[in-house]
Design brief:
By secondary structure, this protein is mainly beta. The protein has a domain of 110 residues. It contains no helices and 26 strands. Strand 10 and strand 11 form a beta hairpin. It is elongated, with a radius of gyration of 45 Å. The protein starts with a strand and ends in a 17-residue tail after the last strand.
Length: 301
């Protein structure tokens, strides 16, 4: 296993040699922005500080305030990043107070106010392939190569369809499997589920819950419908129940209409404009003679 170290203008280059399929493949680990650098002469232990320290390795980018590099007996290098550490790897963003990272295994442990966020992933057609998630905890094991993580220390996760907590939350990106263990508490829009273990297939949008010492508990939120005042229908208001389409109130009794048969005071029925009986018993039309007009006297012989 071969390594080179270059220190120049605040930059350190580490040659990380990995065994892949029986072939040695070298990958660069680059530190930038170093302001103060110290260590022992054999390179087994080194320290660095700086206002804008950065580390690059493949698709992984880390920003930090100080770091300690230790070479173990097997030659592996362990880097402990400290001071508001922020890691970006493809669609993952992780932050915490410190991150102990194994450069060859591409894995490590975040501690202290850890926040992990996975961005929503869309394909070329704009369709969502992976939903976004957010996780908070006090300790997080992260393997950047396969995007696998395990959260402990009061972990809490948010997904667009649910929120969940438990003793441990783990995720495997290859299968998009999310598991909450150790007495989970899941909250959805109108329900809660409590049990021992719950697993999600985020790709197929399915879940399976298992009980522990106690049966699984499911709590539904039931909305009470508001009761309407008596006589109010279809969103109307009191007093409008006898209106037609919000118009004039409909009378409950029958009303006379023009042309209906009228009853004469003499007891006979007569229609408006029809022939009717006069007081003299003569028939006359419905139109009365003008008042005060007298007929001419009839002359004898």
């Amino acid at each position: 296993m071969k390594r080179e170290r270059l220190i120049s203008s605040g930059l350190i280059l580490l040659m990380v040699v990995c065994l892949t399929g029986g072939v040695l493949a070298a990958e660069k680990g680059v530190f930038k922005g170093i302001e103060r650098f110290s260590g022992d002469t054999d390179g087994k232990r080194m320290f660095m500080e700086g206002a804008n320290l950065e580390y690059f390795q493949g698709e992984t980018y880390i920003r930090f305030a100080e770091a300690e590099i230790i070479e173990e007996e097997d030659g592996a290098r362990i880097v402990t990043f400290r001071g508001k550490v922020a890691l970006v790897h493809e669609d993952l963003k992780v932050s915490g107070e410190s991150f102990r990272y194994h450069t060859e295994e591409k894995s490590g442990v975040f501690t202290g106010g850890v926040v992990l966020e996975r961005e929503e992933v869309r394909n070329a057609q704009g369709e969502v392939e992976k939903d976004g998630i957010k996780l908070v905890c006090s300790s997080l094991y992260l393997q950047t190569k396969d995007k696998v993580f395990t959260a402990t220390g009061d972990p809490f996760i948010e997904h667009k369809d649910f929120q969940g907590s438990g003793e441990e939350i783990s995720y495997v990106d290859a299968t998009e499997t999310l598991t909450i263990k150790g007495g989970f508490h899941l909250r959805k829009e109108k329900e809660e589920i409590k049990g021992e273990t719950i697993s999600f297939d985020l790709k197929q949008k399915l879940f399976t819950a298992q009980r522990g010492g106690e049966p699984i508990e499911v709590i539904f939120e039931i909305e009470e419908k508001e009761e309407k005042p008596a006589g109010v229908e279809n969103g109307g208001t009191p007093g409008e129940e006898n209106k037609v389409d919000g118009g004039t109130p409909v009378s409950s009794g029958a009303e006379d209409e023009p042309g209906d048969v009228l009853e004469d005071p003499s007891g006979e029925e007569t229609g408006g404009g029809e022939v009717r009986s006069t007081n003299e018993g003569e028939e006359t039309g419905g139109v009365p003679e003008p008042a005060g007009v007298m007929a001419p006297p009839v002359k004898d012989g």
